[in-house]
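Q: How do we represent a protein-ligand complex in a form that can be generated token by token?
A: Start from the inputs.
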Amino acid sequence: MQPSGGRRVVLGITAGIAAFKAAELARLLVRDGADVQVVMTRSAGQFIGPMTLQAITGRPVRDALFDPVHEAAMGHIELARWADVILVAPATADFIARIAIGMADDLLSTLCLASGAPLLLAPAMNQAMWGHPATQANVAALVERGATLLGPDDGDQACGDTGPGRMREPAALLGDLQASLVGARFAGRRVIVTAGPTQEPLDPVRFLGNRSSGKMGFALAAALTAQGAEVVLISGPVALPTPRGVERIDVESALQMRDAVLAELPEAVLFIACAAVADYRPLEVAAHKIKKEGTSSLKLELVRNPDILAEVSARAERPFCVGFAAETDDLEAAAESKMRTKGLDMIAANQVSVSRGFGTDDNALLVIWNDGRVALANQPKTQLAVQLVDLIADRFDAQAATKNSG
Ligand code: CTP
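Then emit the structure tokens for the protein with cytidine-5'-triphosphate bound:
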């Protein structure tokens, strides 16, 4: 995790009741060493006074696009270039809608449009407004364009409702911002990540698949990119946008995934096998759609797929290999034995059930290597990925140091 010290943060505040929490967020950022410029929308002033924020940050709050005094000192385009990161907390439904369509009708929306800095959004609104397809479509469009969504959290709301829409707590937002800052733990290093399920064709319209959503692998690809890695993300069929800066190769079956991995292998120093690869595929793929007429049952003969991770790990010249183990029983022992049989450097194990692990946004991991283990608590997969990348980098560096001294 990078401290925000020395970073120039534009803290955008829009008109939601959660704006009162922005004062605490500003204080935490300043305490962490960040240089904070608050930019408020006009109506945000109904919820929190600019004087409070000015006192905390030591900088006059900006709230107007056409403000001759401030424009003379630092014009809005200069401010857009000044920012290392823009964090909007709270981000209302209205503000999200305006920037989703590229409006620039006040200072904050103009900055979002004019700046190349990473944009972090902490939504805060009534749960029905958050759930509305219009908001969801706006958020999806922004994420697709590279914005990072922080929350919202689930819980009691100021309006009396309960549900998703609460702004994340200031301390959590500081952690999110620190996690998003570009580090250099894998600077310039090529990394392969597999993600998602595989689909094993039965006939031209049917396949055998599994419940993997790809969320963990995609979060890892984003977290590795944030540490300077050149990431090749080899993904089975998923409904997720490609994280910014990641090279994505789409595949369907295990055999295609294996070919793609082997083709990328020569340059890679790290291989993270996060995909839920089907262990078996149909022996024969029917050329025509299988018809049910005249049958009361259907027997399928399946053959084993190659184990991509074991194959990579068995090579003489091989990258640092990290595997995943999704287990329903006896997590630790099963993961340890998987790590040994496949000859891995590290394994990340998670307990799965119908409601946990696959497809969800949160997860917990038990990470094991030859002489250590760490339990990572249940949390959003995006944050889990940041922590896992940190652990991998520690082990990767330690292994490199041993090799160099040996
Ligand atoms: N893996 C792989 N290629 C396969 C199967 C699995 O690369 N054909 C990788 C996965 O990406 C994951 C790890 O191996 O990192 C999972 O190990 P595996 O033994 O396949 O787990 P399960 O399929 O859950 O095995 P089992 O059903 O035997 O527990």
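The chain has a mean pLDDT of 93. The two ends are 30 Å apart (CA to CA).
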